[in-house]
Amino acid sequence: MSFAQSWDFTPGARVVVDDLRKCSREYEWLEEPYVSPDGETVAMVAALPDAEFSLAVNGEVWEETFDKIWYPRFSPDGRLTALVQSAGEWTMAVDGAAWEEQYGYIWNTLFSEAGDVIAAPVQIDGRYGMVANGTVWETLFENANMVALSRDGSASAAVVQVKSLAQADIETFQNGIFSVAVNGVAWDSIFVNCWNPAFDAAGKRVAATVRRTLYDYTIAVDGKAWEGAYACAWGPVFNPATGQVAAPVRKAGAWGMAIDDKMVWEPRFAQVWHPAFSADGSKLAAIVAPSFGVFTVAVDGTPWDATFPVVTDLAISPAGGRVAAIGNDQNTNFTVICDGKVWSGQYDMAWPLVWSADGAHLAVAVERAGRFTVVCDGKAYPQSFDKCFDPAFSPDGTKVLIRAIADGKLHRIVAPLTAFTG
């Protein structure tokens, strides 16, 4: 049973914390709130006297204190993590207990899909790599960036620098100094640049965008580059059903889509990026620009009619292969496009889209005129709040969990679909 299936989805509203400023210890200030996925917990960094920091969780401060603390995040299984520093060294704290291992720096917390693996890039004595559940790569590198974690957390990857580079050493750079490391083992292949490593569904294979020369871009899979050369390429994705690799590529002055080095969308777009497959691998969608400065979504190479100056947050349903995204007019008038149709509401801001498990319903947290609420299938919840977090659907898709802050209180609302009337 997943963590979400154990949540309380009994319809109704209740106040989880009635005063967010209450704290079990004297404090100088509290930072912004982070609410757990199930809406039962709110965490805030608490600045304590004597320049100490900790986390206040539903008002109760962790016993352990630190010199610095930042990036609090809840794992998919509900644990609370934060990056903490003591005596000049950094580590990960989980539910108030810091890992024994310490690092020169740690950042960008990652989680496995189930939440049982917590990972992050680290720096130790000027060398870089990854740590997962407290275990660091055996081999560290001069540089490691663009990190990725497999769905099950069994493997981590990063773009790594495998050759040293002196100042102004252009020749060495152009001969290649970067590769991709998986669990600390770098590919034998070396490239001028590498970007966006991505795992397949099983966490066994890795693909990345690479540059073989200053003008030759392609995709490498498990270290082997495609033979095709392209003027540019964006991050690849694996088909979860077939294991094939798709990537947007630029050829003959326009963008298209290649799968396993064969063009499947003819290069006719001004831009193609953020590709995503449906769960069964039968559909491939991406954000595209049919012409310069005009964006929409294309599904299997066919663009939608609705266009916007900006399109972001492409989301494919877990079942059914439905596709949605957010369009806006250069950071104003945000709206949702679902299966090519535009919702009627416009907002000052909209956050990432959330599908129900069966793909029948779509929800999003939005802001309008400084107030926040949740919109489901184009209809807004009638109550607005001071702050709203990403919604969540019940496993059967009939109810929506709303996590919100209003009047200094944390509210937890389970609303049936019929409650959305706006």
TrEMBL record:
It comes from Solidesulfovibrio fructosivorans JJ]. Gene3D superfamilies: TolB, C-terminal domain. This is WD40 repeat domain-containing protein.
